[in-house]
């Protein structure tokens, strides 16, 4: 993450990158003072600097949009199979489609599709 944005002027870096970097600096300062830091969850950022679809904090993992805003319906326990397999593609796709004004019939049908609890597409055996 740091290497990708290394050459960029700090004003061009994303909010996700700034939050991640700020937390890393705090952790580094504590470690230099021989203070062990536990339980800090760094934001996960995509290559373009936006928030990665899956974020984890404390006991939960959840789906977020590119701005880091959580989708309310997609949250699972952190140490679960659902969290291990979580990719939030369905939640993100539904969000994108909801923003399109002129929808095709397929898009309209997809708006009613129920994503899995972890924001993924349902597996075939559930459909």
Q: Any overview of this molecule?
A:
It is found in: Secreted. By secondary structure, the protein is α+β, with helices and mostly antiparallel strands. It has helices at residues 2-5, 15-32, 81-84, 89-98, 105-111; strands spanning 54-57, 60-64, 70-77. Strands 1-2-3 form a three-stranded antiparallel β-sheet, with no helix packed on it.
List keywords for this structure.
single chain; 127 residues; alpha+beta; three-stranded antiparallel β-sheet; 5 helices; Dev_reg/Prot_inhib
Strands, helices and their partners?
Elements: H1 2-5, H2 15-32, E1 54-57, E2 60-64, E3 70-77, H3 81-84, H4 89-98, H5 105-111
Antiparallel strand pairs: 1-2, 2-3
Protein name: Thyroglobulin type-1 domain-containing protein
Subcellular location: Secreted
Domain Thyroglobulin type-1: 13-88
């Amino acid at each position: 993450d740091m290497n990708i944005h290394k050459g960029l002027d700090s004003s061009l870096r994303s909010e996700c990158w700034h939050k991640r970097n700020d937390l890393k600096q705090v952790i580094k300062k504590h470690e230099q003072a021989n203070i062990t830091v536990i339980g800090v969850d760094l934001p996960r950022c995509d290559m373009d600097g936006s928030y990665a679809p899956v974020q984890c904090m404390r006991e939960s993992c959840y789906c977020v949009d590119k701005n880091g805003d959580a989708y309310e319906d997609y949250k699972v326990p952190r140490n679960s199979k659902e969290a291990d397999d979580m990719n939030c593609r369905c939640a993100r796709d539904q969000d994108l489609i909801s923003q399109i004004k002129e929808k095709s019939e397929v898009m309209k049908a997809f708006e009613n599709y129920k994503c899995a609890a972890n924001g993924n597409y349902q597996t075939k055996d559930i459909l």
